[in-house]
Give the backbone structure.
Amino acid sequence: MERIDIGLTVNGVRHERQVEPRRLLSDFLREDLGLTGTHVGCEHGVCGACTVLLDGDSARSCLTFAVQCDGASVRTVEGLGAPGALHPLQESFRRHHALQCGFCTPGMLMTALDLLAKYPLATDDEIREGLSGNLCRCTGYVNIVNAIRETAAARGDDTG
Amino acid sequence: MKPPAFKYVAAGSVEEATARLAEYGDDARPIAGGQSLVPMMNFRLVSPAVLVDIRRIAPPDAIEEADGHVRVGALTRHRALETSPLVRERFPVLAAAMGHVAHLAIRNRGTIGGSLCHADPAAELPALAVLLDARIHTASCSGERIVEAGSFFEGALWTALEDGEIVTRIDFPLLRPGTGWGFREFARRHGDFALAGAAATVTGSAGRAVEVRIALFGVGETPVRATAAEALLTGTGLEPDAVAAAVDALRNAIDPDDDLHASAEYRRHLAGVMAERALGDAWARVGAGAGGGAA
């Protein structure tokens, strides 16, 4: 199978690789770059677990071919914060116990980051609408909404 | 699952894209945002041997007003249509509908051309194209043509596009001054495909509706205009009796399917409710002068 050269920036680090055209961005991140923070759930764009920021916009990495990301800039959950230096949104998730098993969390965080950048999120309805494409099978939505509400209210601080 | 293997070809121009599509024929599919195609490939519902990447054949998110139309490039993403100041001013119904398309992450990638070509009967954009009498510009090796939205959608996931033909632009003719709009859909969960939905525009003058347009989606193989209902309402003041008669007419004119999400009867009922509400919103906006499209 032919492989194609691509170069992209992930969390500020430039990577050059050869990929099969059918390589999904989700698998590229996990298998080729070892960035397993991005989770793979349904693989058809329903669960939201694989959400990353692609050129600043949230995107389903399971619905994106790596070959289409040549020249792109990707941000994954690994680029948000580090143990001991969590992103404010991660801090809020921890404070509100907004994760149980943690499987959906990377997708929730990256989705919430984009929602916070683009929408007022003035009401819980708006937050819930924004999260409607992310499934939490622990059904821990209440605490996730609480965490995002608090972060939205504290905006003005750096949420990026 | 994982998508099947394919050959990847990136096109740099419309000419190159159509030449490549002609070269590979039935084995090839164009890909832009991939938000409809990739899930189908991951499910192995489709297995194109070649994908021709058309994202670089024209500038992205090209939206402009010219010659009495708002012209939208096929590579425009749903999110750009949702937030465009020009679209919000001229076609607030279009901007409002875009907010119902899937989820933000999908709207960030999915393109207008892709949605039209995918032609899901429950999708918002095809219904809006039909409502607004959009003109769909296409290109192939044989040249360019313009297809009226009303004859573009031929069946579920089936359009008037010929092999090797791609959509390049969608032109929306400006609405007349004094036109109000409404958009209503019902989905189990925000962002899901609607069980049924309706979009309407009403142009009012001296307390009468001089032009009424209603498009329904999720109620059959393609989005449809409720022409009988439109005729019944034209010339009326959208009084409750007139609206009730129009809703009856549109319910009788559609042939929705049963599936595990809703029965045909429920969809028929719902289409009427959504249309009634959309018409009410449109009529109220005529009065409020917030119709959009006023020159």
